[in-house]
Amino acid sequence: MKNVFAILSFIAGTLTASAQDWPNIKRYQEANSKLAAPAAGQKRVVYMGDSITDFWIVNDSTFFAANNYIDRGISGQTTGQMLLRFRQDVINLKPAVVVILAGINDIAENNGPSKIEDVAGNIFSMAELARVHHIKVVLSSVLPANKFPWRPSIIPTEKVTILNNMLKDYAAKNNMVYLDYFTAMADDKRGLPANLSKDGVHPNLEGYKIMAPLAKAAIAKALAKK
């Protein structure tokens, strides 16, 4: 019985801590505090995202190290959570460019059902916050996906396409860069093929190798914008 109470107490404590820091601001708090301000002339780049960004540095750390990119992805996060931590994990780091990749977990209903317009709105709000702080914006397409291993009842294919079209249109209207991973990675069923992913959602190293030059080109394009 004591073991049962100990387990229940641990679970309750974990849930309370999670509820108190829903956007997980503490995840990068220490790393952010140790990060010096950009040197004069340095064009710092921050990647904001979910597990696809979070796992990128694990799968290909040399990409980030070689380019002095900063990874601020958190696995499982929705756009609402990212928006809440955007100041701490992006604005306060004073980057020249932010690369935003978000939305697939909203479509997967990780925090409950969401209207696709609200998902797009959260991403637009991050972009607008960046612009106010003179940070150039790269809006990444959601990667192709036509299944969720953790939520098989949801078929994401159409919502991914709709959201990407909204992001592309917004970027064009607001002089921002749209980074199209989708076209480069989708198979004929608008999914992520087995050679680029084990689960149809998260890229493997081969997938990230496709993404890397596309991201670098988009960053260069953003830096060149007036």
From TrEMBL:
Keyword Signal applies: yes
Keyword Glycosyltransferase: no
Signal peptide: 1-19
Keywords from the named record: Hydrolase, Signal
Domain of life: Bacteria
Limits of the SGNH hydrolase-type esterase domain: 48-210
UniProt cross-references to InterPro entries, sorted A to Z: Ester_Hydrolysis_Enzymes, SGNH_hydro, SGNH_hydro_sf
GO molecular function terms attached to this record: hydrolase activity
Protein name as it appears in the record: SGNH/GDSL hydrolase family protein
Record organism: Mucilaginibacter lutimaris
